[in-house]
Design brief:
- This protein has a single domain, classed as Glutamine Phosphoribosylpyrophosphate, subunit 1, domain 1 (4-Layer Sandwich).
- The chain contains 9 helices and 12 strands.
- The chain has an 8-stranded mixed β-sheet with strand order 4-3-2-6-5-1-11-12. Strands 7-8-9-10 form a 4-stranded antiparallel β-sheet.
- α3 runs antiparallel to α4.
- The chain binds aspartic acid.
- The site of aspartic acid (ASP) has 13 residues, from β8.
């Protein structure tokens, strides 16, 4: 027969065991590091992407995410992982960033990029660059070498040259596919803006618990008058806070600026106690959908949970954690 005190002891023991199990489970679930990338969202369907091109994108996404993962696995910082990963994507003509950037209405390439560190509210960004090979490194230089957050146009280019960044002839950014896309857009101004975009982004959580988010883009094909999108706007296209999450966006930039998308994901977590997934889903599928703001975002929360959310047909995307790698393009 159980006595009353024995019953109480047994109940206590089971409760303690349950608490330990739950906690161990939660801890086991938090990865040592995590990295997530995107290569732009838009009208990306199996019908308009040939199997050869699909393979090329999968390979490029795999290489990009692996660069960052290796750095994080070896104990490197999230800043280094984000910079190296984005530089790789900027150097690839497949993505609308760096080489492969889309053309403006005047037939030029004007590049925007930004970076934010979740640890100390440090941020840097550049807009309208025409001759800096890797705009993400320019954004990092603004963050680390100036007391400013954002530099634009000629002044930004002068700063980049003085800071020793690699300067190229503007023709470096020419790719035939993007030039043809501009010619098509010039002929048909009503052309769906979703066919004319792209961007690359990366968010990483390192083994020290620091989150960094970065974004780099050529903007939108046929953009006019020194147009600047969301990618270099801290709080719109990029945001990071170690206490909540890091975010990088891609999509129709004007909507992402008006809705301060990246910061809003973090704010919903910080002020309203939402999970990163809940916050991202709400903003992408409710708030932006209502105003026909197309695009998506990638995010990583402080516990290494990955979010890849979009309201367009597809988004080039991938993530990696210890022992886990996922690469996707279409909406499945
Ligand atoms: N958000 C970028 C811009 O508006 C373009 C994109 O991500 O597709 O400049």
């Amino acid at each position: 027969m159980f006595t009353r005190s024995l019953l109480i002891k047994l109940t206590l023991l089971i409760s303690v065991q349950f608490f330990v199990d739950v906690n161990m489970h939660a801890q086991a679930k938090k990865p040592a590091y995590a990295i997530v990338i995107h290569g732009g969202a838009g009208v990306i369907t199996r019908q308009n992407l040939s199997p050869e091109r699909e393979k090329m994108y999968i390979l490029a996404l795999d290489s990009a995410v692996s660069i960052g993962e290796k750095i994080l696995a070896n104990g490197g910082t999230s800043l280094e992982a984000v910079e190296k990963t984005i530089r790789f994507m900027e150097d690839s003509p497949l993505f609308n960033a760096g080489r492969g950037a889309v053309f403006t209405n005047e037939g030029k390439n004007e590049l925007d990029a930004s970076i934010m560190m979740g640890s100390g509210e440090m941020a840097g960004s550049v807009a309208g660059l025409t001759n800096v090979k890797n705009p993400i490194s320019a954004a990092i230089a603004v963050m680390t070498k100036t007391s400013h957050v954002m530099l634009a146009g000629k002044g930004a280019e002068k700063f980049c040259a003085e800071a020793g960044l690699e300067i190229v002839d503007p023709s470096y950014f020419y790719t035939e596919a993007r030039y043809n896309a501009l010619q098509k857009a010039l002929k048909d101004e009503s052309d769906n803006p979703d066919k004319k975009r792209g961007t690359v982004g990366c968010v990483a959580l390192d083994q020290f618990g620091h989150i960094v988010a970065g974004t780099s883009t050529g903007g939108m094909t046929n953009k006019k008058f020194g147009r600047v999108g969301d990618a270099p706007i801290i709080g719109a296209g990029t945001y990071a806070n170690d206490a909540s999450c890091g975010v990088s966006c891609t999509g129709h930039g004007e909507f992402f600026i008006r809705h301060t998308v990246a910061r809003n994901v973090a704010a919903m977590m910080e002020y309203a106690g939402k999970s990163c997934q809940e916050a991202a889903s709400y903003i992408i599928h409710e708030e932006l959908k209502k105003v026909k703001g197309e695009g998506g975002l990638i995010a990583l929360d402080k516990d290494g949970n990955v979010v890849m959310e979009f309201n367009s047909e597809g988004m080039y995307r991938a993530y990696a954690k210890p022992g886990e790698k996922v690469i996707k393009i279409f909406n499945d």
